[in-house]
UniProtKB/TrEMBL annotation:
<keyword id="KW-0479">Metal-binding</keyword>
<feature type="domain" description="EngB-type G">
    <location>
        <begin position="22"/>
        <end position="196"/>
    </location>
</feature>
<comment type="similarity">
    <text>Belongs to the TRAFAC class TrmE-Era-EngA-EngB-Septin-like GTPase superfamily. EngB GTPase family.</text>
</comment>
<dbReference type="Pfam" id="PF01926">
    <property type="entry name" value="MMR_HSR1"/>
</dbReference>
<keyword id="KW-0547">Nucleotide-binding</keyword>
<keyword id="KW-0132">Cell division</keyword>
<comment type="function">
    <text>Necessary for normal cell division and for the maintenance of normal septation.</text>
</comment>
<keyword id="KW-0460">Magnesium</keyword>
<keyword id="KW-0131">Cell cycle</keyword>
<dbReference type="GO" id="GO:0005525">
    <property type="term" value="F:GTP binding"/>
</dbReference>
<dbReference type="GO" id="GO:0046872">
    <property type="term" value="F:metal ion binding"/>
</dbReference>
<keyword id="KW-0342">GTP-binding</keyword>
<dbReference type="InterPro" id="IPR027417">
    <property type="entry name" value="P-loop_NTPase"/>
</dbReference>
<dbReference type="InterPro" id="IPR019987">
    <property type="entry name" value="GTP-bd_ribosome_bio_YsxC"/>
</dbReference>
<dbReference type="InterPro" id="IPR005225">
    <property type="entry name" value="Small_GTP-bd"/>
</dbReference>
<dbReference type="InterPro" id="IPR006073">
    <property type="entry name" value="GTP-bd"/>
</dbReference>
<keyword id="KW-0717">Septation</keyword>
C-alpha cells in the first residue's frame, strides 16, 4: 500500500475545496511543529514530499497526497500557533472542524502530540471532541528519539490516563522520524482503517 507512488494533488482551505471523496483518507492533526508533515514523509519514505520546517506554522492549508490509487493522506495545518492572527486562526479552526466532522471519506485521524510535552488543553479538547463525535482516531507521540525510553513510557501512560478519564480506548503510538520507531505500526494501523 505504501509502495505505490505518492502524488501531491491539491491544497484546500475548506471542505468545499477538497477533491471528490472518491478514496478513503487519513489525516494528520495536532499542534504546530509536532511533526505531522515529517510523519507523512516517514510513512512514504520520501525526504520532502510534505514540506517541513523547524519554524511552527509551516503547513497552512490542507495538503492532499494521493497514494497510488488507494487512498489520500491529508496534511493539516497545526493549531495553537500564536503568530497567526486571531481572526485567521478562528477561520482556520472552523474550516478544519468542518472538515473533520463532515468529510465522509475520512477513515482515520492521526492526532500527533510531541512526546516531550504534556497534552495541552487544546489537545484534550480535541480528544474529547473526536470521541463525542465518534470519529476514528489514534494518538501518535512524536519525536521519541528526543527522550529516554523511560520518559517515553511515562508520557504514553499519561496520555492513556487522560483518555481513560474520557472513556476513550485507542492506540497510542510512540514514533520518531529519526529512528523510525513506530513507522511499521502506524502503517499497519492505516492499512487496517483504509481497507476495513
Ligand atoms: P506545522 O506544519 O507547522 O503544523 O508543523 P508540523 O507538525 O508539520 O511539523 P514538521 O513536520 O514541519 O516538523 C517540525 C520540526 O520537528 C522539524 O524541524 C522536523 O525536522 C522536526 N521533527 C519532526 N519529527 C521529528 C522526530 O520524530 N524527531 C526529531 N528529532 N525531530 C522531528
Ligand atoms: Mg506541517
Amino acid at each position: 500500500m505504501f509502495n505505490a507512488q505518492p502524488k501531491f494533488i491539491t491544497s484546500a482551505t475548506k471542505l468545499e475545496e477538497c477533491p471528490p471523496a472518491s478514496l478513503p483518507e487519513v489525516c494528520f492533526a495536532g499542534r504546530s511543529n509536532v511533526g505531522k508533515s515529517s510523519l507523512i514523509n516517514a510513512l512514504l519514505n520520501k525526504k520532502n514530499i510534505a514540506r517541513t520546517s523547524n519554524v511552527p506554522g509551516k503547513t497552512q492549508q490542507m495538503n492532499y497526497y494521493k497514494i497510488g490509487n488507494e487512498f489520500f493522506m491529508v496534511d493539516l495545518p497545526g493549531y495553537g500557533y500564536a503568530k497567526v492572527p486571531k481572526k485567521e486562526r478562528e477561520r482556520w479552526g472552523k474550516s478544519i472542524r468542518n472538515y473533520l466532522l463532515d468529510r465522509e471519506s475520512l477513515s482515520l485521524i492521526l492526532h500527533v502530540v510531541d512526546v516531550r510535552h504534556e497534552p495541552s488543553q487544546l489537545d484534550e479538547d480535541f480528544f474529547y471532541w473526536m470521541a463525542m463525535n465518534e470519529k476514528p482516531f489514534s494518538v501518535v507521540l512524536s519525536k521519541s528519539d528526543k527522550i529516554s525510553r523511560n520518559k517515553v513510557n511515562q508520557s504514553k501512560a499519561r496520555v492513556r490516563r487522560i483518555l481513560k478519564e474520557m472513556n476513550i480506548e485507542i492506540p497510542i503510538l510512540p514514533y520518531s522520524s529519526d529512528s523510525r520507531e513506530g513507522v511499521p505500526e502506524i502503517k499497519d494501523l492505516i492499512s487496517e482503517f483504509v481497507n476495513h
